[in-house]
Write a structure and sequence with these properties.
Elements (H helix, E strand, L loop, with lengths): L2 E10 L6 H11 L8 E6 L5 E8 L8 E6 H17 L4 H11 L4 H10 L8 E6 L7 H12 L4 E6 L11 E3 L5 E3 L2 E7 L2 E8 L2 E14 L6 E6 L14 E3 H5 L9 E5 L3 H4 L9 E8 L3 E3 L4 H4 L14 E7 L5 H15 L12 E7 L1 H6 L8 E5 L1 E4 L2 E3 L20 E3 L2 E8 L6
Length: about 425
């Protein structure tokens, strides 16, 4: 009774039709408690994996908590936030009580914490798993709200794989109300400290960087229509290089129809201080139809262009990428995280052993590059990796902001053609 924990099951996408049945049988076979989170998800990986974590209970630490954020829950958080803000006008006593407890924190953020029954001091790590059938802008909205509600928590996860034969069968939640979850983001609030690393994987730049003239960033219908012709010296009436249809210009750099288009996450000036690779580019699969159509929700739904700010900017540049196998990507990422940990040897978990490590992959390039499906405690391959760009070590999250409404140290972004690691530390508790 003094134990708490969580269980994760990664089911190959070829077994999508049996996801619920497999999960129920596993939950019963291991006699998993109904009060302990149990989550099963589709993976593009080839093997069925069961990951369990049992943690000693502690009166100073909240147990792991499973949550679901869909459109209705996000609306409920907004309604609660509106109610709280309205009550601030009722009288000075309520305003004083609110200020002492929450400071200047937005009411919707407070509503989210109330909905999830956890305060910012209770959560060290969030594992987030998004249903690929969610509304286009829901994952970014949910991640933005979680960033504001738990700014010092490390966040990592995956936009899950989907099955054409069984749409809507990507997530199963066990417990007292078992069943499939659809159209939202499922997550775990954990008391464990964590370190993460995310980098581009299974892709390489192809061709020049294009100056974009005409593009549409509409949610679900993003398209690059025309780009500058870098080989021409001719100018149009505005003094710019003459334009080319994007589909024709980028076609030579597609590998048998496989092409990814990278859009800058920031302006040129901001990119100078951004992390290379995942910090610079947000990748979308391209399709040559009356221009270069960007598959998926598109930059308009993900706030691409402003690092961590949910506001789309005009698409001004683009870079083509092609898929390639990169079997050394995992080794590079693991080494980079280890070096970063050693660089903070006097401050952080250099002498602590991870409680467990999970490997997350997003996109076809990551699937090609993972040569061992048995890495660490488990490998989950989906459509995209969720998390902060680059490395996030334990001590980069130790400092609690003195602001009443702190911003996340690094925003949680969506990374396609990427690989991520998250190492969990049971023996490093928040003071």
């Amino acid at each position: 009774n003094s134990m708490c924990g969580f269980a994760l099951v990664f089911v190959p996408v070829t077994w999508a039709a049996d996801l619920e049945d497999i999960a129920r049988k596993l939950e019963e076979a291991i006699a998993w408690s109904e009060d302990v989170p149990f989550l099963a998800m589709l993976s593009s990986g080839p093997i069925l994996s069961l990951v369990t974590a049992l943690l000693p209970g502690s009166p100073k630490r909240c147990a792991p908590k499973l949550f679901f954020l869909g459109e209705q829950k996000l609306e409920e958080a907004g309604v609660e936030g509106y109610r709280l803000q309205e009550q601030l006008d009722i009288g000075n006593k309520y305003y004083t009580d609110y200020w002492q407890k929450h400071g200047r924190t937005n009411g919707t953020v407070v509503g989210c914490r109330m909905l999830l029954q956890r305060g910012p001091e209770d959560v060290c790590t969030l594992l987030c798993f998004a249903d690929p059938a969610s509304p286009p802008d829901l994952p970014s909205q949910a991640l933005g709200l979680l960033d504001s509600a738990y700014p010092n928590a490390v966040k990592s996860g995956v936009i899950l794989a989907s099955s054409d034969q069984c749409p809507g069968c990507s997530i199963y939640v066990g417990g007292r109300r078992p069943g499939l979850k659809q159209g939202g983001l499922v997550g775990l609030l954990l008391p464990l400290k964590a370190e993460t690393a995310i980098g581009l994987c299974g892709c390489e730049a192809s061709g020049p960087m294009w100056e974009v003239y005409d593009a549409d960033a509409s949610v679900g219908a993003s398209i690059i229509r025309t780009v500058a012709d870098p080989l021409s010296s001719d100018r149009d009436e505005d003094g710019r290089l003459v334009s080319l249809p994007a589909a024709d210009a980028m076609a030579p750099f597609a590998d048998k129809g496989d092409m990814w288009v990278g859009l800058p996450r920031a302006t040129i000036r901001e990119t100078r201080s951004a992390l290379p690779g995942v910090g610079e580019w947000a990748l979308y699969r391209g399709r040559q139809r009356l221009g270069n159509l960007l598959e998926g929700p598109g930059p308009g739904a993900e706030g691409v262009g402003g690092v961590g700010r949910l506001q789309a900017r005009r698409i001004s540049r683009a870079q083509c990428f092609r898929t390639c196998a990169d079997p050394m990507a995992f080794s590079r990422l693991s080494t980079a995280l280890s070096m970063d940990r050693l660089a903070h040897e006097n401050l952080c978990s250099a002498n602590a052993s991870p409680f467990g490590t999970l490997v997350f992959g997003g996109g076809s390039g990551a699937a090609l590059s993972i040569v061992d499906a048995h890495l660490h405690e488990g490998v989950l391959l989906g459509m995209a990796v969720l998390g902060a760009s680059g490395n996030v070590t334990v001590d980069s999250t130790n400092a609690i902001s003195t602001s009443d409404n702190p911003q996340p140290q690094r925003p949680t972004l969506i990374h396609r053609q990427a690989l991520g690691l998250i190492a969990l530390f049971e023996n490093v508790d928040r003071e």
